[in-house]
Amino acid sequence: MTRSDPALPVALTCGEPAGIGPETAVKARHLLGADLPFFWIGDPRHLPAGTSWREIATTEEATRVPHDVLPVLHHDFPNPAVAGQPDPDNAAEVVAVIARAVDLVRSGQASAVTTAPISKKALKDGAGFAFPGHTEYLASLAGVRRVVMMLACPALRVVPATIHVPLAEVPSALSADLLEDTIRITRNGLETSFGLEAPRIAVAGLNPHAGEGGAMGREEIDLIAPTLDRLRSEGMTIIGPLPADTMFHPAARAGYDAAVCMYHDQALIPIKTLDFAGGVNVTLGLPFVRTSPDHGTAFDIAGKGVADPTSLVAALRLAAEMSKGRT
Q1: Which residues hold a divalent metal cation (predicted)?
Q2: Cβ atoms 204, 240 nearer than 8 A
Q3: What CATH architecture does domain 155-274 belong to?
């Protein structure tokens, strides 16, 4: 695991230049000021008109830029950006910026990586991007076999065991190996990056009522429960499998530190209901800290000046906090 210096700034990637990433980066700088140093990697031409920015030659310079000025690590793109209209010619550099940010944190020049939203379709069309999303690409860059996507806000942390899988394919995608790895990586992340000495993990069932003793499916009996029993025998504090519809009210949430769910919507619906604007996407299992705002490129509002930076601010704050936990 990369040991980062928490005094270093966070590296913020530009994301899709035609989306709301550049706008929210500027707004986040104004909101965070001197409280949290970060720098933006991208082409200054893609920033909103009138942005006060300063080019930096080294990441350390970002800590000395006035708090109302955005520090920019210049990265050339072929073309300017048109709000709401991704340019295929810019796609390869969007990917290159992500790789550059990872190199900076792994070489000790940044404390963590926060990624602005990308358009997977734009990257596939323009650069042949072969990954389902950021998470899988970052795992490839790090040479890690498996990572875990956590969504976090002050009220809840959730982890989907299967992520971008059609619902009809979830039962076949779910395996004891996948579930065990997901729980182990989640537990390790809670210990190393969130400072929890004995994390409590709640695990949802796959079927309604957690299968109701086999009446509504046998995955809980045949796969989930045996996996949880095996991990509990090692001393892990694991609760479940639980009916997902009773896991997320306040009294239930007080009993665990993170919830592992079986599929995407089972995990993301509760956290987006509780804190739609403030959720943060965290990748656990990487040798460095990575966070991201929990929203997309929002092409429909890009360039209009109305994008909400709340999730990006939360992502930057959490990245800085997690990097301190890894020192």
Answers
A1: 164, 209, 264
A2: yes
A3: 3-Layer(aba) Sandwich (3.40)
Share of the chain above pLDDT 70, in %: 97
Residues 144-155 pLDDT 10s: 989 999 999 999
Prediction pTM value: 0.92
Residues at the binding site for substrate are 134-135, 272, 281, 290
Instruction: Report the pLDDT value the prediction gives residue 2, as an integer from 0 to 100.
Output: 46
Which residue numbers belong to the known binding site for a divalent metal cation? 164, 209, 264
Amino acid at position 240, single letter: G
CATH class of 1-147+286-327: alpha beta
Structure tokens belonging to residue 6? 């928490």
Q: Is residue 139 within 8 Å of residue 146, measured between CB atoms? A: yes
When pLDDT is averaged across residues 295-313 and rounded to a whole number, the result is 95
Q: Distance between CA 16 and CA 170 in Å, rounded?
A: 30
For the chain, which residues make up each domain, given as ranges? 1-147+286-327, 155-274
The H or E element spanning position 290 is: strand 290-293
237-248 pLDDT, tens per residue?
A: 999 999 999 999
Residues making up the binding site: 134-135, 164, 209, 264, 272, 281, 290
